[in-house]
Specification:
This protein has 9 helices and 11 strands. It is globular and about 55 Å long. The protein folds into 2 domains: about 25-90, Arc Repressor Mutant, subunit A; about 90-220, Beta-Lactamase (2-Layer Sandwich), CATH 3.30.450. The longest helix has 20 residues, at about 1-20. It is of the alpha+beta class.
Length: about 220
């Protein structure tokens, strides 16, 4: 019981910290209803179609696409190319990143390690995460169904590291903090990575990270 309470306290603090940096649910709820629905459809499109909605497809959900783009960009809910085309919606991105996810017959990319772990719980899907340890470069493959890790015996020592100091106030999270939310192959590697900058880094066991990702991202679909 004490261990569970300790984990819950750790996750509560981490959730509060991440929500302060990237208040996705609060931002979503602050949007006009049609933009909130659009955002949810943009998330679902990654799993259904293997990609984000195009601007033309966005017009099926909102009357004023430029205004929707402005709101979603201002709140850092969706990332856009220099041409104004949508390219990402946390936890997904169309940009090539090291965290690949195989889901519903599609291979897509996640913004970061934590984001990759959120997709199966968000959609109740079976998926495979294919990434690598940030320190050693060794492959990391995690099979999930919902919140359940299917190959736990193989990956139970994998950790997720977050370098909180990577968050930059005037930069979108996709280009700052997300780049330093990483997989670490085992506890020894995780502890060494942590010891380099203990004050600004934090590590999570794989199961802690799944719970963290679930609690942060699942509310976006409700």
């Amino acid at each position: 019981m004490q261990k569970n309470n300790s984990m819950n306290n750790k996750l509560e603090v981490a959730l509060k910290r991440l929500t302060t940096i990237l208040p996705l649910k609060k931002s979503q709820d602050s949007c006009p209803p049609e933009i909130k629905v659009l955002h949810q459809q943009m998330l679902r499109s990654f799993v259904t179609n293997g990609r984000i909605l195009t601007r033309d497809e966005m017009a099926q959900w909102v009357d004023d696409v430029p205004e929707a783009v402005n709101v979603l960009s201002q709140y850092d809910m969706v990332t856009f190319s220099e041409r104004g085309d949508p390219v990402g919606a946390y936890p997904f991105t169309m940009m090539a990143r090291e965290h690949k996810v195989q889901v519903n017959g599609h291979q897509i990319h996640a913004m970061c390690a934590l984001d990759a772990l959120a997709i199966a719980p968000m959609f109740g899907e079976t998926m495979q995460v294919m990434s690598q340890c940030w320190v050693t470069g060794k492959p990391v493959q995690i099979n999930m169904c919902g919140e359940t890790i299917l190959n736990l015996a193989e990956v139970q020592d994998v950790h997720v590291g977050i370098a909180w100091s990577a968050a930059v106030a005037d930069s979108c999270c996709a280009d700052s903090l997300c780049l330093e939310m990483i997989f670490l192959r085992d506890a020894e590697t995780a502890q060494k990575w942590l010891s380099d900058y203990t004050a600004s880094r934090e590590i999570f066991t794989l199961q802690e990270a799944v719970q963290f990702a679930t609690r942060f991202f699942v509310p976006l679909l409700s």
